[in-house]
């Protein structure tokens, strides 16, 4: 954990297990690290990235204030495989939200990913560990082979989900994925 913390605080990236694949991540407030993630993935800057957390306290500062009723509604889905687009706060780097005014956030139900967020005391950027348009990587070994020393790969086992999380626009209720 110390190595992961040091890598993240230095603006680096980590690969870690999530619900359906390994995720590639960094600190959500670190604009330079976010640009590194986008470059490693060869992902267009305008798309934005997902942020995962162990609990709501780790994401509150990243979204504009929501009412108690709105948080209660979200609590019915979390922790779970549901990513919601919520209005981004001014603290969110533009590279993280892409061309959008919203930020994609999820309280993960994956035990290892949640434990990682808890141990680090922070939410994490979470995008599939792969180059854009290629298959998501499913093992730590595959991540080490793909990214080498550029990314600190943590050991772990992915969850049983076959598909990535469902993405829902919270304002409209529209399912986007």
UniProtKB/TrEMBL annotation:
Main location: cytoplasm
Record InterPro entries: DHBP_synth_RibB-like_a/b_dom, Sua5-like_dom, TC-AMP_synthase, TC-AMP_synthase_SUA5
PROSITE patterns: YRDC (PS51163)
EC number in record: 2.7.7.87
Location in or out of the cell: Cytoplasm
Keyword presence, ATP-binding: yes
GO cellular component: cytoplasm
Catalysis: reaction(s): L-threonine + hydrogencarbonate + ATP = L-threonylcarbamoyladenylate + diphosphate + H2O
Position of the signal peptide: none
Domain YrdC-like: 1-177
Keywords, ordered alphabetically: ATP-binding, Cytoplasm, Nucleotide-binding, Nucleotidyltransferase, Transferase, tRNA processing
SUPFAM superfamilies, per the entry: YrdC/RibB
One of the protein's GO biological processes: tRNA threonylcarbamoyladenosine modification
A GO molecular-function annotation: double-stranded RNA binding
Protein family (similarity comment): Belongs to the SUA5 family. TsaC subfamily.
Function field: Required for the formation of a threonylcarbamoyl group on adenosine at position 37 (t(6)A37) in tRNAs that read codons beginning with adenine. Catalyzes the conversion of L-threonine, HCO(3)(-)/CO(2) and ATP to give threonylcarbamoyl-AMP (TC-AMP) as the acyladenylate intermediate, with the release of diphosphate.
PANTHER family: SUA5, THREONYLCARBAMOYL-AMP SYNTHASE
Protein name: Threonylcarbamoyl-AMP synthase
Protein source organism: Aquitalea aquatica
Lineage: Bacteria, Pseudomonadati, Pseudomonadota, Betaproteobacteria, Neisseriales
Gene responsible for this protein: tsaC
């Amino acid at each position: 954990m110390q190595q992961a913390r040091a890598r993240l605080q230095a603006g680096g990236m980590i690969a870690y297990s999530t619900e359906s694949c390994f995720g590639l991540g960094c600190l959500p407030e670190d604009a330079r690290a976010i640009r590194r993630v986008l470059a490693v993935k060869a992902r267009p800057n305008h798309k934005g990235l997902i942020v995962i957390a162990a609990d709501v306290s780790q994401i509150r500062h990243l979204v504009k204030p929501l009412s108690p009723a709105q948080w209660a509604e979200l609590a019915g889905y979390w922790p779970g495989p549901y990513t919601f687009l919520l209005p981004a706060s001014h603290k969110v780097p533009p590279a993280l939200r892409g061309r959008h005014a919203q930020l994609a956030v999820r309280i993960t139900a994956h035990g290892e990913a949640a434990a990682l967020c808890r141990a680090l005391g922070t939410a994490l950027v979470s995008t599939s560990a792969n180059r854009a348009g290629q298959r998501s990587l499913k093992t730590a070994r595959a991540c080490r082979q793909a990214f080498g020393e550029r990314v600190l790969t943590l050991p772990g086992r992915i969850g049983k989900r076959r598909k990535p999380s469902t993405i829902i626009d919270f304002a409209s209720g529209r399912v986007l994925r």
